[in-house]
Amino acid sequence: MSIIFRKKQGVLVPKTNNPPTVQQILGNIGLGAALGITLGKKKAEVINNLINETVERLIMEKLFLISPSSIKKLEYFVSYQLIDGKKTVKTLFLKKKIWMSFVRISYDEMMLTGTKSSDFLSFLENKQCKKIKISREQLENYI
Q1: Half-sphere exposure (Cβ direction) of 25: Cα atoms closer than 13 Å
Q2: 21 Cβ contact partners less than 8 Å away, ≥ 6 residues apart
Q3: What's the longest Cα–Cα distance across the chain?
Q4: How far is residue 103's CA from residue 121's CA, in Å, rounded to a whole number?
Q5: 10 pLDDT above the threshold of 70
Q6: Helices (H), 1-135
Q7: Do residues 105 and 62 touch, judged by C-beta distance below 8 A?
Q8: What are phi and psi of 74, to 5 degrees?
């Protein structure tokens, strides 16, 4: 079997009938990541991984956690507020089981990470954190 090469503007390219792949066009220098092209994963999967990483990083920084596995041992509750008849998250309160006080993550801090508050709640549910219920008096002490 012989390979036929054709010269095209100073570059030898093997003659094929197939359209070029993304790797042939961009090369293997990581340029695809800079342009937002996903080669092996779906875009939604990449975006979800990025959201989970930012949520995890914020929680670890606020609670001074050493490893991501310690997120599973957290307890949390959410305070809501009504804006124009819609229930939105006001503040997320987190703590380790052995701690007495909660650490507050406000709605503004959640928005600064570039994620929605619903992403925070789904992240905590996926990590199997315990959602606790507190009485009205306890809530008034924290707020």
Answers
A1: 8
A2: none
A3: 83
A4: 15
A5: no
A6: 22-26, 31-35, 43-63, 107-112, 117-126
A7: yes
A8: -90, 155
Contact (Cβ atoms closer than 8 angstroms) between residue 90 and residue 139: no
AA letter at 21: T
Distance of alpha carbon 97 from its chain centroid, rounded? 24
- Bridge pairing between strands 86-96 and 5-8: unpaired
N-to-C CA span, the chain: 77
Quick: pLDDT tens for 99-109. Answer: 888 899 999 99
**How do the domains of the chain map onto residue ranges?**
5-35, 43-142
Helix (H, G, I), strand (E, B) or coil at 137: helix
How many residues does the structure list for the chain?
Answer: 143
Question: Average pLDDT, stretch 8-29?
Answer: 59
Q: pTM above 0.85? A: no
Q: 3-state class of 72 per DSSP?
A: helix
Instruction: Give, to the nearest 10 degrees, the angle between helix 117-126 and helix 43-63.
Output: 80
Please name the helix (run of DSSP H) or strand (run of DSSP E) that holds residue 90, with its range, or none.
strand 86-96
pLDDT at residue 40 above 50? yes
